[in-house]
Design brief:
This protein is of the alpha/beta class. The protein has a single domain, classed as TIM Barrel (Alpha-Beta Barrel), CATH 3.20.20.70. It has an eight-stranded mixed sheet. Helix 1 packs parallel to helix 3. The longest helix is centred in the last third of the chain and has 14 residues. The chain is globular. The N and C termini lie far apart (58 Å). It binds iron/sulfur cluster (SF4). The site of iron/sulfur cluster (SF4) has 11 residues, from loops.
């Protein structure tokens, strides 16, 4: 008997929408922040997206809104970015949305931590044009301590995306004393080198900022966990230079 495909999901739970985002990728972006995340990063910027409960929306209503900005996407090279929380927890909804975008010529970027079942991750690769893949830290022990989860499935998902030839920007939020040591940066460079035989992987080093602390306080979460320093321009420059010297292509030309 033939195996039946699961139906696509026509509704999903979102946290919020940003209609004229410009930071997540080149061009004007319609950024959809999905609700729900199974990780618990101690430096999380959006702890208010952790729980699944949010605003329920349909693919039809989101695509209608997205298409209102098509003219801006076309002139700026922008499109839709689905972010979170972790969008892959609602992969069937995201797939439906991405398919509709594909029919309408809207560029699709997926902003993910990669922490979800392998099959769910792979199911989105053929309709994703750009993967913004967040790597918190490569060392497994540090990863467990910082995020509460093992990173083996994350790395396996990342390898699958690279093998499929998906354009990938690895986003690495640099946190002094947490993931910015020589060995952390060496591990990151080695990871990129191991998966980049198609030359489609770049790295974006982003500065950690403490703005998320406000949300932790509002939610009554333990803020001591968030007491990390922000990197100085010199620390950022040094990290980028270290990676460049190890042959990593950076996404920005910043030093
Ligand atoms: S994966 Fe992102 S949303 Fe989830 S806890 Fe970590 S930083 Fe927060």
């Amino acid at each position: 008997m033939q195996k039946r495909e699961k139906p696509e999901k026509s509704t999903g739970f979102i946290h919020s929408i940003e209609t004229m985002g410009t930071v997540d990728n080149g061009g004007v972006r319609f950024v959809l922040f999905m609700q729900g995340c199974a990780m618990r990063c101690v430096f999380c910027h959006n702890p208010d997206t952790w729980l699944r409960e949010g605003i329920e929306v349909s693919v039809d209503e989101i695509i209608k809104q997205v298409l209102d900005y098509k003219v801006f996407f076309d002139v700026s090279g922008g499109g839709l970015t689905v972010s979170g929380g972790e969008p892959l927890l609602q992969h069937r909804f995201v797939r439906s949305l991405f398919e509709e975008c594909g029919k309408n010529g809207v560029h699709r970027a997926l902003d993910t931590s990669g922490y979800c079942r392998h099959g769910d991750f792979v199911s989105l690769l053929d309709c994703t044009e750009l993967l913004l893949f967040s790597v918190k830290v490569v060392d497994p022990e540090k990863h467990l301590k910082l995020t509460g989860v093992d990173n083996s499935v994350i790395l396996s998902n990342l390898r699958a995306a690279a093998a499929a030839g998906t354009e990938i920007v690895l986003r690495y939020v640099l946190i002094p004393t947490v993931n910015d040591s020589e060995s952390d940066l060496r591990d990151l460079a080695e990871l990129v080198s191991a998966i980049n035989d198609r030359g489609r992987v770049k790295v974006d080093i982003l500065p950690y900022n403490r703005m998320g602390l406000v949300k932790w306080k509002q939610l009554g979460l333990n803020c001591e966990l968030q007491e990390f320093p922000e990197p100085t321009p010199e620390e950022l420059r040094r990290a980028r230079e270290t990676l460049r010297n190890r042959g990593v292509s950076l996404r920005t030309g910043k030093t």
